[in-house]
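Escalation from tier 1.

The customer reports that the assembly of two entities below gives different structure tokens on two consecutive runs. Tier 1 could not reproduce it. I'm attaching the input and our single run for tier 2 to review.
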Amino acid sequence: MAPSLGSALRKSWQTLSSIKTGVVLIILVVIFSAAGTVILQRPMTEPDDMARAYSPAMLRFLDATGLTDVFHARWFVALMIVVSLSIIAASVQRFPNAWRYFSRPYKSPDQNFRRALPLQASIPISNEEQGLGAADRILRKHGFRSERIVRTNSFSLFSERNRISQMAVYMVHASLLLIFLGGIIDALVGWRGFLMLTPGKAGNQIEMKTGVSRTLPFSILCNAAGEETYSDGTPKKYWSKLAIIENGQEVSRKEIVVNDPLVYKGVRFYQASYGRTGKLDELVLNVTPAKGGSSQQISLRMNQELALDADTTVQLVEFIPDFVVQDGHVYARSNDVTNPAVHMVVTSKKTNVATNYWLPEISGVAENASSPYIFEPKDLKTGVFTGLEVSHEPGQWAVWAGVVLMAFGLTFVFYVIHMRLWVVPVQNANGTLSLWIGGSANRNRDAFEEKFKVLVEDLRKELNPVPVPAELQVASIAGR
Amino acid sequence: MSRAKVEQHPATGMTLVVMVGLSILFLLFMAFLNVVKTGNILNEANLLYAALVFYAGAGALYLGFGVTGTDSYIKFASLATWAGLLANTAAVAHRWYEAGHPPFASVYEMLLSFVWTLAALTLIAEKRYGVKVIGTITMPVAIVGVVLMQLLRSDVRPLVPALQSTWLHVHVTLAMLAYAACALSFALAMMFLIQDKMKTETFLAATSIFTAGIYTAILGRFEGWGGFNVVAWDLENKQEVFLSRGVRLFVTIPDLGWLMLLVFAAVLAPMVFYLLAAFRKKEIFLSIANRAVFISILLQTLALIFFLLRTRDGQYPSLDAEGLYPTSLAASPFILSALVGGIFANLLYLLLLWRREDLERLLPSAENLDRITYKTICIAFPLLTLMIAAGAFWANRAWGSYWNWDPKETWAAITWLVYAGYLHMRITRGWRGRRAAYFAILGFTVVMFTFFGVTYLLPGLHAYA
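Tier 1 run:
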């Protein structure tokens, strides 16, 4: 069994590393990701919308196959793993060859190599040393530093540029694997949740997308939160002043805005939403005695009792952000502070009379006329909340490292070309001597071919300065 | 076909140049009178108007060149393009200065930058690579872009918090450059196929499939008894009418749907005759197919005209809300570009049909085109990579996650994969010529879907673009 198992392994390894498998895998990834954008996806789409879009049988099928949450389905993850394996296998299989190129450059070409090389030229020479010297000069002129290769009975020249280019593909493949690694780490240990805070409150319970909550080892305190708008009312900026409290001590502090999160111990806090709680924070009033006299400014908080004089106190008992009156009762229509009403109780200790004071004066419930004081609203501060998106994605560092590596790798792949040149003096069958020049480039061969032709032409001129016909010579001088 | 022969004689004279020159002067003079009246010279509208005038002149000359093959037109055409580009640059600079951010934040600003890029690329392709005929294709697109801009809300609107990021500008700039490079590689691959002696009738089939695809997408808006759904437009605020957050209100234009259906049948006709010609092996069907292309262009133009007229006037009922609502061209940029794109593709086919020999003479050789296509993709691919990376980085700062599998992201990744496939086949398998050209065309099709299709058909986070 052992040999057959071995051969099966070898075979699957070969299949995995072949470019054909790679392309088939790319096509599969493309098809399934495209499906994931066309078919409505589970966590984002409400169940009602799903039910409306698909028939029950269809929905059962889609759910069973995982097509309603493609990007988190097991088989999609498995596919990505196979893609990673294929990249690894393809790289590993080709790497030794490339590494040989890289570490042990082929410097002195043998006869077979010389015969098979597509890009080559031959120039007759009279003297080996003179030919190699001329070639060295010409190569230098074209920016190639050459190296003299000494073998037991021969001399030749070898020159190359940008050998690193041979490694570039592996850089790109490694970067892709790094990005995948980051994604896998985040899928396994990363998490995302939501935290809602009101100014002055601290919290450490993160509500996760899955519904459970997670307790942080430190708590986050919101000192203040607010918004700024442009003159036309569109939002300009949302901000929250946050502080991290760990072991009873403030260890970090930052004002976050959209696009600029607070990061502490790998946990990131993003400004995600902002709004009004519909609760009263502070009410500022002008108070004037009903009998006349000087007015004063007071500020009230919810349920707070304040003495106006030795006998009279006032208490804020009710705040309705958006009131509506029906059948002699006051109701709240919504939590938006669009049409607010406040209810205060003015009490006299001596007479023990409590007066219901409403602002605005709602007929039927308000007894404003019998109050010993007249209240005039000055300012109304309602409570706000800030919604923080909280995430922990430790894998992102692998992702960013991968991105940087890929940028370098792609630069090397596309714009850095490994070029090699060989110059070998050859004894021909008829006894004459000629200089064999061969060149190869790993990419952009057509441009290299042009370069090679120019180089060979230069070398030919250097070696055999052809006497120019007299007439032509005159013309060229006149041309100058 | 006889018509083509009549036009074959070498066009002489500078009639077209003189006419275009005079019309440019006339339009600029009218504009000057207007400027004198208002006393404000350097505002964006004037600059854009100047750009439009010059682009229109350049477009006319490039078209004249494309049809007659007179080389002298090119000189004046590129001169006009230079002038237009200058005015366009001033408009972009003005916008940038006024808004305080690069002009990528709204559809209007995107178009402004797009037209600028297109004009710049035209000049580069012409001067640097000698692809003279490119203006025949790009200038009409630039003109449509500038005209469309006149309809859109152009005031500088403040940026909502999520868009206030340098990374957004990096992301969008890279996207524009990458998509432009992809578009160029597509055009080059098409030219390669022409130079590679691909049969003219194959282009007929491709054009027909493309146009049929456009009208299939358009007929997605077909409603009930011949109605045609378009987004309602709030004329006062110059924006779409929303029923609720992210849900647009559609109004139904009666009877326009029938016309679209008719045009759909008309654009299918060339395909039917092409198939008949292919299977019955009779040449006669091919000439009928070519005539059908001509008819389909006329009908498509009719559809465009009716679409323009009916979206401009009147108020239409909606299935989702009571009352009548107006609409506007600006509410349907995708339908408008689809209609124009269909006509344009068919006109290009006619250009090929009638002027193939001239085109073959003017275009670079097949090997050169093959190589330039590859080089363009070598530029496009790193740009695509960086565009995705910058987008991921921005998303990480704005939403707290670098990858959300949102449709636009996914399709950007698919685009990347397609081009990665192209590069692997080319580098390791030595794919050249036809197969590589098909791959480049496929890549650009996916780019187009990512750019238009995803926004038009699929919902997602990318509500801004």
